[in-house]
Q: What sequence folds into this?
């Protein structure tokens, strides 16, 4: 009966208003995907690097529950972009990169590699202008890396931060801006890793030991 | 007929009443290329080191387009194309902060080769932002079965401050510094329909800095 009292445009308007009112209460989802990362411009290290992305890394997502009724919850999915970034970056940094079939360990059959890198996203934080009153969207990431042998013995272990921000722009949604900030943070992660890998003391020690190990069997 | 005149006149009114902008530009340049930059290319990059703001990518693109439109002999390399071609050496974390740092970059053979391939002779760093400094007024909008409309008046002022630093790649030296500031007041009266009278503050800053850069880079100016 009530349908006859309301015209179609009014119904749509009511639905639109209701949608707007409820939009603050739902979860805002940001999927960082289809991001293209450039190959690093550097001489590749003459090594075969194995890489193992565990389930949590390859499908990495971050969920922040709304603090109050007026806030929104946020779900930021970076897994696909993480894999795209690290595949491209490592492919340019090393002569050869091979993906492991399983986590390195004594019982695990894996392709031959000089070492295996296992990246992990330890932490992700974000800030939007509504939180900070600063007109930038920000993403912080903290990675934890393990460089291990094919048997799973640790050669080096270190943490690395990455940061990305993007300014507010006319007609840009919060989701689009957070996505852009995440892409900037991932690029920063790649830049930080590529320029600091050889400065990690344990990595330097491992690399210094490599020629002796390679020459060992000959002598 | 009147149905077409009304929005048209509103638009014309908005254009005629475009907010006023004041702009000031200072420049200090050395070793200006007398015959322009020839076949070399120029890259314009935004500085992104500050914690509380970012030089807008749109502004960098605007300055590049301003120069290209007025002298199509100048080859401007797009910011993101350059950053991708030289990844990871021009990211905010790794970008050179002083002209002397170019030497460090060129010690990487692939970087030196890529820069030679791009024929980059000048690198222009732009640092700054446009921000809304204050606002006043109020406006309310409503939707009812009879239609929708707004009533009220809003005004705000914006300020742009940018500084361009020119690096000469061959000399590994800073050869110029141009700064511009622009400010303006925008208005938005609303009687049923809001009429934005926007002061083109960022656009004026873009034109000012672009004109000064043209004088440095172009043989025609």
A:
């Amino acid at each position: 009966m009530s349908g006859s009292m309301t015209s179609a445009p009014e119904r749509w308007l009511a639905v639109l208003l209701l949608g707007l009112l409820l939009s603050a209460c739902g979860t805002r989802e940001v999927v960082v995907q289809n991001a293209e990362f450039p190959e690093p411009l550097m001489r590749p290290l003459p090594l075969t690097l194995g890489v193992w992305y565990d389930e949590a890394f390859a499908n990495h997502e971050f969920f922040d529950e709304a603090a109050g009724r007026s806030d929104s919850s946020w779900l930021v999915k970076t897994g696909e972009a993480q894999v795209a970034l690290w595949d491209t970056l490592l492919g340019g940094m090393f002569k050869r990169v091979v993906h492991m079939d399983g986590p390195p360990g004594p019982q695990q059959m894996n392709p031959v590699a000089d070492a295996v890198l296992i990246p992990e996203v330890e932490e992700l934080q974000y800030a939007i202008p509504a939180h900070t009153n600063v007109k930038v969207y920000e993403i912080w990431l903290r990675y934890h890396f393990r460089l291990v042998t094919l048997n799973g013995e640790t050669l080096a272990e270190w943490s690395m931060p990455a940061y990305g921000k993007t300014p507010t722009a006319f007609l840009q949604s919060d989701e689009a801006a957070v996505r852009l900030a995440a892409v900037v943070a991932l690029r920063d992660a790649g830049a930080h890793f590529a320029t600091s890998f050889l400065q990690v003391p344990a990595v330097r020690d491992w690399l210094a030991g490599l020629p002796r190990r390679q020459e060992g069997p000959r002598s | 007929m009147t149905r077409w005149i009304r929005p048209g006149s509103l638009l014309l009114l908005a254009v005629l009443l475009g907010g006023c902008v004041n702009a000031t530009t200072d420049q200090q340049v050395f070793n200006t290329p007398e015959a322009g930059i020839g076949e070399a290319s120029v890259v314009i990059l935004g500085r992104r080191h500050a914690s509380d703001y970012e030089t807008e990518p749109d502004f960098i693109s605007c300055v590049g387009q301003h120069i290209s439109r007025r002298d199509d002999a100048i080859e401007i390399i797009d910011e993101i194309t350059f950053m991708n071609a030289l990844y990871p050496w021009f990211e905010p974390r790794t970008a050179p902060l002083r002209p002397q740092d170019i030497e460090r970059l060129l010690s990487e053979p692939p970087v030196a080769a890529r820069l030679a391939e791009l024929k980059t002779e000048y690198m222009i760093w732009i640092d700054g932002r446009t921000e809304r400094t204050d606002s006043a007024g109020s406006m309310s909008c409503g939707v009812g079965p009879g239609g929708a409309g707004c009533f009220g008046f809003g005004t705000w002022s914006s300020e742009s401050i940018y500084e361009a630093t020119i690096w000469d790649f061959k000399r590994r030296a800073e050869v110029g510094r141009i700064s511009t500031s622009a400010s303006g007041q925008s208005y938005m009266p609303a009687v049923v329909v809001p009429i934005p009278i926007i002061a083109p503050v960022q656009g004026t800053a873009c034109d000012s800095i672009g004109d000064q850069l043209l004088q440095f880079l172009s043989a025609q100016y």
The mean pLDDT of chain A is 85. The longest helix of chain A spans residues 174-196. The interface with chain B takes residues 10, 13, 17, 37-43, 134-136, 165-167, 169, 187-188, 190-192, 194-195 of chain A (CB under 8 Å). The longest strand of chain A covers residues 154-167.
